Structure formats: C-alpha cells, structure tokens
User: Fold this.
Amino acid sequence: MFLLPWVLTPGGGVNAVVLGLASAMRERYEPVFLITGWDAPPPGQMWLKLPGLTSGRRNVLGFLARMGPNLRRLRRATRGAVAVNPHFVGLELLPLVLLRWLRLCPKVILSVHGADIAEAVKSSGWTRTLFTWMLSSADLVVACSHALAEEVKRFSPAANVVAVWNAVTGTPDSPRARQVDGRYVICVAHFVAKKAHDVLLRAFLLIEKQRSDLRLVLIGGYGPERQAIMSLIHSLGLGGKVDVLVDVPHREVLSWIAHAECLVLPSREEPFGIVLLEAALARVPVVATRVGGVPEFVSDKIHGLLCEPDHPDDIAQAVLTTLSDRAGTQKRTRAFYEHAQRFTWERAFARYRTKAALP
Assistant:
C-alpha cells in the first residue's frame, strides 16, 4: 500500500517514483494507493483524510480528538497489506507509525524525497521530537540517494535508513511538442528557491551573448518563486529569449527535453534528479550542479558536465562547451545513455523488497 498526501497523477518527481515502483511490483504484489490529503482522488485510489499536526492549542486538541478514529480507519485500510509505504513524510502519518509501534499494522516503510526531510530539519521542540520518533520507529526509511540517507541519519540517528536510487521509464517516441522556433536549452524543475532558476538566468545572460540563436525554456509546476523568476527575466532584459511553461503534461515535457540542445539542472540542493536520467535516455547532453545525489550517478566529464552551485559563470561555460565541443559532447551523451539503462524500477523495487525483508 502506497500513501501520498496528494492525488496521484502521471508525471515527474514523487509521482513518478510511486508509479514506477507500483509497475515493477505487479507480478508479485497488488499495489494499492491511499490518498491522505484533502482532495478527492479519482476512482482506483482510496481516500482517507488525515489532518496534519500543527502548532496551536486548538489544532493539537483537534488532532488528538481525531487520533482514535484515524487509528481505527488506518487499521482497517491497511489490513492484508504486506507493507505500508508512505511517500513524503509529514506529521499526518503519526497515527500510522503509532499503529506500527503497537504492532497493529503491517511493516511501515517511510520513503523520503528531500523537501519532507528539509521540513523536519527546520522544525524544533516537540515537532522535531515527533519527526525523529517517526523516522526511528519505522521498519525502514528509504532515501533516494546516499546524500539524503546521510541527512536522515544525522537528523534521526536511530533510524534504519537505506539509499535506493530512483529510476526512469524512458522517453516516448512522440511527435514534436509545440515549441519555440529554433534551438533552445531547457531546465525542468519546480519553481522553488533550491532549484536556482535565478542562477540559470544569470548564466543564460552570458550564454546568449555568445549564442544569440539560443533560447531558454523553463518548465515547472506552480511554485513560490515563479513570480520572482518572471520579474528577474524582465529585469535582465531576457523577456524575448526565455519561455516559462507551467504544469505541462509529463509526456509533453519529455518531448521538450528530447528536442533540446542541452538540459541544465542548476540546483542548490537536489536529492536525486530524475530529469537527468530522462535526458540521458533521450540522448540529450546534461549540465548540472555537483550537489546532493547528482554526483552519485552523473560522473563529471564522463556522463555530463558538473559545476559548483551558485556559480553562473561556470554553468555558462559548461553549456557553451557542451554546444561547441561536438565530439566530446557526443561521447558523454552516449556514455550517459548506456549508464541510464541500469536505472530500472525493477532494480529499485528489488532493493526495497530485500532491505525491508518482504515475502
């Protein structure tokens, strides 16, 4: 049983992980999806609203008042499961972890993806204590990279943490998506501060001076930094050179990637970076920052070019090198394509199953 705090839809990020693992397990198990958020899911996904625990006496009392009913509902919902695997860990999962602590539900595998741990690390007081307890009480905590696993271990030393790399399902042979005219480099990332769109825009300002034929395409979901990004585009005088697309269907995103000259991921933090594998399978060269889980599967100058974060000059030079050094770029792109074949959801789920000792 997979738990998510939002409606599960095809796409990137956490949704891609859940759907990939579910597909890989179907010969052995029947995946069931339980949505714990406040939006009703479509048919085929169960719904059990779990309130989060926030500060304030009224909120805490309300959470405690619902604890008994939620324990009963979760116990009924999880009956017969081999394991319960929440993705994206928040305090709304306290009743589930408590059930497991009381040995009243199947094994609990908490899968963390970065933003959830960042929220836990920022917490303090009783909130921090509860996050630490949840992570240490789970049968297994799965992080999408060794870097993120180490972060979890620092936060909750008693947690049983293992790294399981994400995977990729490949890129479709689809017709060319509606695109800008001409050549472009692309960045696919949510519009949040850690994705460093501001750094990329400053890098593109340098790139555009040497390659005036290029455009920059930014694709992401609605995020708190989107308006600031739009303002920066205009303040840098790039209004006619940058296209910002929001909430593009995943299949169309893959087509945009497949026709780009280069994919750039300029993140300040990056737990893994599935989009880099998607670019690899599309045979598109990549430039990324040497952060988080990225250098665990992208070797600098072998699979792509890696830069230090917050260095627009370095990113600009890496992109220009990628575009000008045709022979070197083709060699790296071919090597990354072959390397990416290893990252399958079947392998990822086999590691889940082994580490959690599932039947």
Notes: The longest helix spans residues 57-78. The first strand starts at residue 2 and ends at 4. Residues 161 and 284 are 33 Å apart (CA to CA).
